[in-house]
Amino acid sequence: MEFYPEGHRIETTQNRLRTASLFALAEAAKSQDILEGKAVVCDAAHNLIVELGEGLRGIIPREEGALGIREGATRDIAIISRVNKPVCFVVTGFETRDGAVMPVLSRRAAQQRCSDEWLCRLAPGDVIDARITHLEPFGAFADIGCGIASLLPIDAISISRISHPRDRFSVGQKIRAVVRARDSEGRIALSHKELLGTWLENAAAFSPGETVAGIIRSVEPYGIFIELAPNLAGLAEPKGTVQCGQAASVYIKSLIPSRMKVKLILIEGFSSPAFPMPFSYFDPGAHIDRWRYSPPDCEKVIESVF
């Protein structure tokens, strides 16, 4: 069994077949397959009603809505916030409501399996798939399997500093992430910047003499920091009135690997805000032990050790 962020299975052929009829759901109950459906209602008792096959709906009782609900360690918002979104579950039984048979489902059981069979095996440095679930000023939360959330602190999102995670991510976005650490309670923290390339890898896409697009990330008395890529920013001299978050066009004066410096000239800052800069991953494989951002001959060392 492979475990994925919620939403991965819902449109697959196998999931559609396994949720298409009461007979198929009964077979899934025997095999305890993890399936997905769309939560369409959270009733007054905080039970989730889940849309399955055509004309079929199932129910996730409140205590089965997420790990920790039964014990009081997880708030009911973890259930309420799933409405109009995919939810994973295993089929635990059937009950009759208003003369109709309704499958009884458990999201908690699916999450427990994910925790026991997948998340407990993860070690710092492992590279995994995740999906952004919500954004806070201090970081992004990402689903790392069956709706189990993990924190990606803002300082671990990219080398180029951002004012808010929304500068880099959007809710629902699929990302890759690195397991940063696991605390005493088993909660996993993530990192992301190690997948966006080193200084040299990013700088290789630019050349002195070019005029390129950028995003203004910081305005200081001594200069303006402008992002060229999520893991590469340069400094331009102060010019006019510009604001953080604006798009800009910049001329590249020089690239200095030994000092990790990119010298820029700000051509123009635009009044409209910039869209999040697209990013691509530099494939590190399935695991990273050590990642060094700095060029080999640079005195300043920026690295991650897992």
UniProtKB/TrEMBL annotation:
InterPro entries: NA-bd_OB-fold, Ribos_protein_bS1-like, S1_domain. The keyword Ribonucleoprotein applies. GO terms for cellular component: ribosome. Keywords: Ribonucleoprotein, Ribosomal protein. Signal peptide: none annotated. Residues 125-193, 209-235 form the S1 motif domain. The keyword Ribosomal protein applies. It holds the Pfam family S1. SUPFAM superfamilies: Nucleic acid-binding proteins. SMART domains: S1. Belongs to the bacterial ribosomal protein bS1 family. This is 30S ribosomal protein S1.
